[in-house]
Structures are given as C-alpha cells and as structure tokens.
C-alpha cells in the first residue's frame, strides 16, 4: 500500500508543473503586472470572463490557477462553462453532490473531447471546494439547427428545447456581426454567390448569438442567487465570445446593469520577451494573459 501511494504521489508531482510561463498586461494601466496582482483585482468583481484558445495547454493550466488564487483569497466562486450544455446541468449537479459517479455524469453530459486534460481540473477544483458549476451553453443540436435554418428555427423549438435556450434573444447585425462575418471569410466558399455568403453568415451569426444569449442568461441567473459578500462567477469560453466586450460579455452587461465585470483574454505566443501590446489588443480585454506556446516541432525526415 505504501509503495502504491508513493508511486501515485510521484506521478502527481510529475504531472503538476512547477512553473507556467506567462505575462500579464493590464490594458487599463497599460502596463505589465503580476499574475497575483491580477487575481487580487478580480477577487471582488461580480463576473469574470476568461476567453481562451481551446487548444493551448498552458492556457488551461493558468485557468485552473485562477481558481486556486481565488480560493487562497477565501472567495466562494461559481464556475461557469461554455463546455457544458444547459440540459446537462442535472447530471453535473448530481456529480458535484456525490450522488452520481464521474463515469455516469460524463455519459449524460456530453463533455468536450479534451475534457480530461483541459476542463476536468476546473470541475474537480469546484467539487472539492463545494462550488457550483454552471452548464451554460445552449445544446449543440439547437445551435446547429439555427445555423442551418436561421432565426426561424427558434420558433420551431419544442417546449423542452426552448427551456434551455435564452428567452431574450437580441441579435442585431452590429459590430459583433461584422467581426463574426470577417472571421467566417477566412473559410471561403468559392461556389457561393455574394448573397448566399451573406445569408450563410447571418444564419451562423444567429447560432453564435443564441449561444451568447444562453450563456449570458445562465450567468445572470447564477449571480442573482449570490450575496454581495461572495466571490465572482468565473465564466470560461472561447475568446471570441468575450473579447472586446462583445458577445456573451455584452449580453451579460445588458442583463446586469451596474454589476462589475472583467474580461481576461488568454493569448498564446511563441516569445514572451518581445511583447509590445498595442492597437486593437488594448481594447481586447481588461487583462491580456500571454501564455508560452511551444513552436510545433518539424517532422523528422526518414
């Protein structure tokens, strides 16, 4: 038994990095600051948005470090995740309460492919601290139907589907749409006419907007159940959903006027020593957290 425990502890030590390379830039002060200073700055706000690049390993380590830092500051946190859909909430709640095994929860909750490495650490920290975890996103099947049909799909939803979709849907073709359409143009459809491309962009934008509105509704509901003395709701999503104060961020602020919100954008880079944040990046978020991303190694020639 002792040998088994020793081996397990050694494995845990090997899997836990002693240091995660990062640099934090405070866009309000326009200065680099310490990671811990950022944590002290978000400990007493109402909602924190953490926007990520989903495939960056160091980002996920730092996302867990945010929860560790807030726990050290004796804050009680709500963890909100784009990575779980709202109809998975009962399974997630049962797992957190200890009445369902992790295996059973994962069968019903449809986790993202890299859940074990990327998002399980967030859920497990919340479980150990007895913090709520919010399955914030609209079910994928609904988002896909909206992308296929457009906003008319909302009127075709069943009562059960409508219950896990935001009631208040405001999706104007504004600056956020312009950014979204520009991002879609990076994936050209050469056989489509200009009108077809525009119609497709609007359908996909409505799908994006339904996700944003649904996550915002879930975040606002979670915050309404908390007292002023408790810690923030920490919402993790892809950076496009929260960068520039748009997407989910804008829709939370519409629902929670006067509440204090902070946006963090995680930015993987290959060189942490030559950073000069400028231009649009200064508007991207309140804090830019640059993470070290290793250059892909070229394949060896045989």
Can you describe this structure?
By secondary structure, this protein is of the alpha/beta class. It has one domain (19-292): Rossmann fold. 46% of the residues lie in helices and 16% in strands. The chain is built from 12 helices and 8 strands. The protein has helices spanning 2-15, 35-42, 57-72, 89-97, 102-109, 115-129, 140-149, 159-163, 175-184, 194-224, 247-255, 281-284, and strands at residues 22-26, 31-33, 47-52, 78-85, 133-137, 233-238, 261-269, 287-292. It has an 8-stranded mixed sheet with strand order 2-1-8-7-3-6-4-5, sandwiched between helices. Helix 12 (281-284) links the parallel strand 7 (261-269) and strand 8. The longest helix is centred in the last third of the chain and has 31 residues, at 194-224. It is globular. The protein starts with a helix and ends in a 10-residue tail after the last strand.
Topology:
Layout: H1 2-15, E1 22-26, E2 31-33, H2 35-42, E3 47-52, H3 57-72, E4 78-85, H4 89-97, H5 102-109, H6 115-129, E5 133-137, H7 140-149, H8 159-163, H9 175-184, H10 194-224, E6 233-238, H11 247-255, E7 261-269, H12 281-284, E8 287-292
Parallel strand pairs: 3-6, 3-7, 4-5, 4-6, 7-8
Antiparallel strand pairs: 1-2, 1-8
Helix pairs in contact: 3-6, 4-5, 7-10, 9-10, 10-11
Which characteristics define this entry?
302 residues, Rossmann fold, 8 strands, single chain, alpha/beta
């Amino acid at each position: 038994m002792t040998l088994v425990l020793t081996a397990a502890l050694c494995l845990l030590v090997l899997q836990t990095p002693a240091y995660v390379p990062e640099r934090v830039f405070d866009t309000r002060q326009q200065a680099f600051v310490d990671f811990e200073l950022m944590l002290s700055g978000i400990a007493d706000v109402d909602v924190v948005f953490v926007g990520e690049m989903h495939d960056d390993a160091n980002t996920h380590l730092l996302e867990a470090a945010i929860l560790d830092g807030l726990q050290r500051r004796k804050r009680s946190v709500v963890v909100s995740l784009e990575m779980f859909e709202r109809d998975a909430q009962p399974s997630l709640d049962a797992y957190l309460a200890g009445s369902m095994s992790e295996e059973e929860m994962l069968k019903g909750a449809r986790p993202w492919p890299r859940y074990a490495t990327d998002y399980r650490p967030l859920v497990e920290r919340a479980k150990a601290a007895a913090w709520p975890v919010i399955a914030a996103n609209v079910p994928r099947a609904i988002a896909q139907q909206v992308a296929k049909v457009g906003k008319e799909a909302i009127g075709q939803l069943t009562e059960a589907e409508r219950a896990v979709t935001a009631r208040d849907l405001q999706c104007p073709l504004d600056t956020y749409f312009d950014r979204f359409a520009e991002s879609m143009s990076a994936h050209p459809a050469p056989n489509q006419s200009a009108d077809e491309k525009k119609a497709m962009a609007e359908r996909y934008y409505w799908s994006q907007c339904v996700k944003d509105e649904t996550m915002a509704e879930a975040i606002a509901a979670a915050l309404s159940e908390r007292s002023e003395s408790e810690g923030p709701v920490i919402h993790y999503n892809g950076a496009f959903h929260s960068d520039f104060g748009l997407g989910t961020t804008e829709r939370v602020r519409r629902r929670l006027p006067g509440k204090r919100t902070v946006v963090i954008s995680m930015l993987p880079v290959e060189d942490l020593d030559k950073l000069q944040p400028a231009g649009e990046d200064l508007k991207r978020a309140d804090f830019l957290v640059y993470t070290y991303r290793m250059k892909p190694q070229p394949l060896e020639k045989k």
